[in-house]
Amino acid sequence: MAAVGRRAVVCAWILGVGGLWGCSRNDVTAFPDSYVGVGVELSVKDGKATIIRVIEGGPAHAAGLQAGAVLLQVAGENIQQQPLPELVNLLRGPPQSTVKVRVEERGKSYDVTLVRKSLVKTGGSARYTAEQADGSPR
């Protein structure tokens, strides 16, 4: 796993158990209590951004994306070799804004447009759920 990816995973675990040891301010903001995005957790390995988890009820889940899919482009931008924090920033944005992603699954690539949605951290961990229309966790 790339150094950035390892660090993000370690900081996710550290934040999940309530500490900040070894995490920079940027790492901390990578795991806020809530954010607006597409509802995926990514891993970057060998320059490929792979979905490792799709948040149930989130935009990616609604579009049928699955763990194991590789993101090739975000908003028309080739994302190969980009660090994880930059990819996260491309996928986040204002509520109800859209972002087009090109995905590769099972040897086929396709485009999907996702509508960003508010996601909230659950149970004091770095796990998220999609918010319902009334703002409560799903």
Provide a brief overview of the structure.
With 138 residues, the protein is of the alpha+beta class. Helix content is 22%, strand content 35%.
Q: What does this protein look like?
A:
The protein is α+β, with helices and mostly antiparallel strands. The chain has a domain at 33-121: Pdz3 Domain (Roll). Helix content is 22%, strand content 35%. The protein has four helices and nine strands. The protein has helices spanning 3-16, 25-29, 59-62, 84-91; strands at 34-37, 40-45, 48-54, 70-74, 77-78, 98-105, 108-115, 117-121, 128-130. The strands form two sheets. Strands 2, 3, 4, 5, 6 and 7 form a six-stranded antiparallel β-sheet that branches. A three-stranded antiparallel β-sheet has the order 1-8-9, with no helix packed on it. Mean pLDDT is 74; it is low at 1-25 and 124-128.
Low-confidence stretches: 1-25, 124-128
What can be said about the biggest beta sheet? Answer: 6 strands, antiparallel
Query: How many angstroms does the end-to-end distance come to?
Result: 32 Å
The level of helicity is 10-25%
Number of strands: 9
Per DSSP, the total helix count is 4
**CATH first level of one domain:** Mainly Beta
Strand percent estimate: 25-35%
Shape: globular
| Average pLDDT rating | 74
Provide the structure class: alpha+beta
Would you tell me which CATH topology of one domain applies?
Pdz3 Domain
Radius of gyration: 14 Å
Order of SSEs: HHEEEHEEHEEEE
